[in-house]
Amino acid sequence: MGIFEKFKIGLSKSSKNFSFGIQNLVINKKIDSQTLGDLEDFLIQSDVGVIAAKELKQIFSQIKIDPKKNITNQINLIVENYIKNLMSPLEKNLFIEENIKPKVILVAGVNGVGKTTTIGKLGKILASNNKQVVFAAADTFRAAAIEQLEIWSKKIGAKIIKSEIGSDPASVAFKALEYSKKNNIDYLLIDTAGRLQNKKNLMEEFKKISKVLKKINPHSPHETILILDATTGQSALNQVEEFQKITPISGLIMTKLDGTAKGGILLAVAKKYNLPIIAVGLGEHENDLELFKAEEYAKAIMQH
Ligand SMILES: Nc1nc2c(ncn2[C@@H]2O[C@H](COP(=O)(O)OP(=O)(O)O)[C@@H](O)[C@H]2O)c(=O)[nH]1
Ligand SMILES: [Mg+2]
């Protein structure tokens, strides 16, 4: 299956809601202030955020739709181009060759957003591109988190560095980088705990992890990815805000876009924070993570 088909299937809940919603509001209607107001309300309800909703409203107030041509196509194309232009500059591929070995990727996010699963899926993409991958189980808070990462490590043939439950996450991260350096590993992916309710501790934890990594390689971590869960809607925006206070974030992955009809949340995050988007989660299975492509996302969400 091509990337576009995967985006299309994964985003089908959102696209049904989004593209049909817009079409229902605009087709066969006079584009007057009432219609534009309804459109803006609908866009805000779809989680695209206030700014994007205003901009799209503005675009629709200025365009001329040709009634002799296919109206649905014209509307789809307008929204698709808007999304594509907004999101293309944010596409970020972590996996282009850069001669950094090991590339250290720290993964952050609140509990349940999909950190461990996403690390497993990223590991799978890397392993199938013949990269050597190590996982560090630095979410030492819950035994299940360590076991879960271990299952993934077996599945994709990655080495896992772990310690007992309750042990110091920074020491796991340190051991993992030491091992990765010694064994000429390509990518080290570090899982972390996400107890945002205890922000001060979490901040200390990230500081400590970063400090010990820098003892081995002053440039590491090379990336700190924040994982967001699309089904949490507007709360995803707060999480970006809160985590940026805890540690610098270099990119985002949004999971569970398959599980929501409000996939517009990715647009809201992009518009508000301008952070690179690395990948999107489109399902629970091991192949359901796609590296982010703005054009495919835009097309899939407008379904054509
Ligand atoms: N539908 C769907 N479920 C996902 C996706 N990513 C993760 N999940 C599920 O979300 C739940 C929590 O994931 P987990 O990796 O344990 O989250 P963590 O606490 O952040 O490490 C699990 O049941 C995953 O299968 C996704 O893209 N789509
Ligand atoms: Mg986890």
Short structural description:
The protein contains 12 helices and 8 strands.
Please report the distance between the alpha carbons of the first and last residues: 16 Å
Using DSSP, what is the number of strands?
8
Task: Indicate the structural class.
Answer: alpha/beta
Ligand list: guanosine-5'-diphosphate, magnesium ion
Order of helices and strands: HHHHHEHEHEHEHEHEHEEH
Q: Could you tell me the strand content as a percent range?
A: 5-15%
Helix content: 40-55%
Q: What's the average pLDDT?
A: 93
Low-pLDDT ranges = none
Major sheet characteristics: 8 strands, mixed
Q: What Rg do the Cα atoms give?
A: 21 Å
Count of runs of 4 or more consecutive helical residues: 12
Q: Would you kindly provide a written description of the structure presented here, covering whatever features stand out?
A:
The structure is a single chain. The chain is of the alpha/beta class. About 50% of the residues lie in helices and about 15% in strands. It has twelve helices and eight strands. It has helices at about 5-10, 10-25, 35-45, 50-60, 70-85, 115-130, 145-155, 170-180, 200-215, 235-245, 265-275, 295-300; strands at about 105-110, 135-140, 160, 185-190, 225-230, 250-255, 275-280, 290. The protein has an eight-stranded mixed beta sheet, sandwiched between helices. β6 (about 250-255), α11 (about 265-275) and β7 form a beta-alpha-beta unit. The longest helix is centred in the C-terminal third of the chain and has 18 residues, at about 200-215. The mean pLDDT is about 95. Guanosine-5'-diphosphate binds near residues 111 and 284.
